[in-house]
Amino acid sequence: MRRIYRMLPGPTPVRVATSIVLVSIVLIALHFFYEWVGSNFLDTGGTVG
Fold first, then answer.
1. What is the helix, strand, coil percentage profile of the chain, to 5?
2. Diameter of the chain by CA atoms?
3. Is pTM beyond 0.85 here?
């Protein structure tokens, strides 16, 4: 994590803003991935019997 942060360009405020944007993008992508996995491979929540 520290290595990735150090590789970001610019002064500290720009690095922090860039980190926030990158983390947001990763979390949004993870959300859509989990939704896709849940709808295609897991139970859809139907009732038994």
1. 70, 0, 30
2. 61
3. no
Q: Which pair of structure tokens corresponds to residue 48? A: 């038994």
CB atoms within 10 A of CB 19: 14
The fraction of the chain above a pLDDT of 90, given in percent, is 53
Residue with token string 């860039």 = 18
Please tell me whether residue 18 adopts helix, strand or coil conformation.
Answer: helix
Give the C-alpha separation, 10 to 16, whole Å: 10
| Alpha carbon 2 to chain centroid, angstroms | 18
Report how far residue 14's alpha carbon sits from residue 26's, in angstroms, rounded to the nearest whole number.
Answer: 18
Dump pLDDT digits (tens) for 9-32.
899 999 999 999 999 999 999 999
